[in-house]
Design a protein that fits this description.
It is built from 16 helices and eleven strands. By secondary structure, the chain is of the alpha/beta class. The strands form two sheets. A seven-stranded parallel beta sheet has the order 4-3-2-1-5-6-7, sandwiched between helices. It has a four-stranded mixed beta sheet with strand order 9-8-10-11, with helices on one face.
C-alpha cells in the first residue's frame, strides 16, 4: 500500500514541488487528494496528470471544469468546508498543509481531529492556534512534521540530543532583498523590488514577509510550539547563502547544523518519507568548489518585525492571531500601493497595541481575534500613511 498524501494548496510553490517529489519517489507514494482556491486551470492540469481520488476547490469554479474533474474519477469538494471534509477521508494517510495564511487553519484542525499525520508548511496554523493545536495533536497521537526548511533543519538536528540538553535553537534568515539596503531605500521599495528575492522562489505573500522579516518572526513563533521552547531559546541570524538552514546548540558547546542548497524539494521529501531517507531530487552541495558561508545579526532598526514577533511569542494568547491577521492586511495594502514597506510593521505593531489580549483563548476566541484585527488594521491604514514622512 503506497503512502497516500493529501496536498492542501497543490497549485502553490510548495504544492508543485511536492508533486514533483511524489513523482520522483514512485509507486510507494501517491497524491490522492489535491486542493486549490482560485488557480483552477493549474489544478485541472494536476488532476489530469496525477488522477487523485479527491479534489477540493475553495473558490469559484465553472460547471464545465467541475464536470471534467469528476469525469476523471475525482470526488469534488467545494467551498471552505469542503477542504476540511476532504482531509478526513479514509484514503488519506498524510496531509501536506501548504495553504498560506489563516485560510488553512480549519483544514489542519480537521486533519488532527481525524488523527491524520501532518506535514506542516502552513506556519500560520501554529502562530494563530499553537496553544490549541499542539495539545490536540498530542492527545490524538498525531505527528506534526515541519516542511519549512528552517524547522526541518531543527527537527533533524535536534535528534542529536535530548530536549533538556538544548541550549538554543538558531534560525537562519537570508536577509531577503533588502539585507544591505538602508532604511530610506527600504521605504522607497516598490512591490516589484520586494518580490525580487535573491535566494528562494516563493509565493507573493511569503516573499513580502521575507522582505520585512515577518516570515522569520512567524517561524520563530512556530519553532516555540513545534519544539516546546521558550522564545528566549530561539535566536535569528542572517545567513545570505541560505546553505545552513538552521542550527541547534547543545549544552556541551556542540552546534549541529543541517546544510543543503536552497531547494524546497529536500525538506518536503524528508517530511513525506520520514522516518526513512530515500534518494532525492534536491540539489546537493559541491564541496570541491570554493565557497564561503557568512553570518551576521539582523538589524533591528531595518527589521522591527522580529521584535514584534518576540513580544508575541512571549505574551502568547490571542496575539499570534492578531499579528498574523494584521500582517496579511498590511501586505495586501503594500502590494496595492497604499502603504510603503516600513508601514507594514507600523500597521501590525499598532494593531497589536490596540488589541485586548485573551491569554487562554478557545477556538471561539481565535476567529474573533482574527476578524477584529483585520478590521482594526484596515481602519488604521490611512493613519499609518499620514504618520510617514
Amino acid at each position: 500500500m503506497p503512502k497516500r498524501i493529501a496536498i492542501l494548496g497543490s497549485t502553490g510553490s510548495i504544492g508543485r514541488n511536492a508533486l514533483e517529489v511524489i513523482e520522483h519517489l514512485g509507486a510507494e507514494y501517491r497524491a490522492v487528494a489535491l486542493s486549490a482556491r482560485n488557480q483552477t486551470d493549474k489544478l485541472l492540469e494536476q488532476v489530469r496528470r496525477h488522477r487523485p481520488a479527491a479534489v477540493a476547490v475553495a473558490g469559484e469554479m465553472d460547471d464545465a471544469m467541475a464536470s471534467e474533474i469528476e469525469s476523471l474519477g475525482a470526488q469534488l469538494y467545494r467551498g471552505p468546508g469542503g477542504l476540511a471534509e476532504m482531509v478526513q477521508r479514509d484514503d488519506v494517510d498524510l496531509v501536506l498543509a501548504a495553504i498560506v495564511g489563516a485560510a488553512g487553519l480549519p483544514a489542519v484542525f480537521a486533519a488532527v481531529h481525524a488523527a491524520k499525520n501532518i506535514a506542516l508548511a502552513n506556519k500560520e496554523a501554529l502562530v494563530i492556534a499553537g496553544s490549541l493545536l499542539i495539545p490536540e495533536a498530542r492527545r490524538r497521537q498525531v505527528t506534526i512534521l515541519p516542511v519549512d526548511s528552517e524547522h526541518s533543519a531543527v527537527f533533524q538536528a535536534i535528534r542529536c540530543g535530548r530536549r533538556e540538553q538544548i541550549r538554543r535553537v538558531i534560525l537562519t534568515a537570508s536577509g531577503g532583498p533588502f539585507r544591505t539596503a538602508t532604511r530610506e531605500q527600504i521605504a522607497r521599495a516598490t512591490p516589484s523590488d520586494a518580490l525580487d528575492h535573491p535566494t528562494w522562489q516563493m509565493g507573493g505573500k511569503v516573499t513580502i514577509d521575507s522582505a520585512t522579516m515577518f516570515n522569520k518572526g512567524l517561524e520563530l513563533i512556530e519553532a516555540c510550539w513545534l519544539f516546546d521552547l521558550p522564545a528566549k531559546m530561539v535566536e535569528v541570524v542572517v545567513h545570505p547563502e541560505s546553505i545552513v538552514h538552521s542550527m541547534v546548540e547543545f549544552v556541551d558547546g556542540s552546534t549541529i547544523a543541517q546544510m543543503s542548497p536552497p531547494d524546497m524539494r529536500t525538506p518536503i521529501q524528508y517530511a513525506l518519507t520520514y522516518p526513512e531517507r530515500l534518494p532525492g531530487i534536491g540539489r546537493t552541495l559541491d564541496f570541491a568548489k570554493p565557497q564561503a558561508l557568512h553570518f551576521e545579526p539582523p538589524d533591528p532598526e531595518k527589521f522591527p518585525a522580529l521584535a514584534i514577533a518576540y513580544d508575541v511569542a512571549q505574551r502568547g494568547g490571542t496575539l499570534g492571531a492578531v499579528m498574523n491577521a494584521a500582517n496579511e492586511v498590511a501586505v495586501e495594502a503594500f502590494l496595492a500601493g497604499k502603504i510603503n514597506l516600513h508601514a507594514i510593521c507600523d500597521l501590525v505593531g499598532l494593531t497589536i497595541r490596540l488589541h485586548r489580549l485573551q491569554r487562554r483563548p478557545t477556538m471561539d476566541h481565535l476567529p474573533e481575534a482574527d476578524r477584529a484585527a483585520r478590521a482594526t488594521a484596515h481602519s488604521l491604514i490611512d493613519e499609518v500613511v499620514a504618520t510617514k514622512p
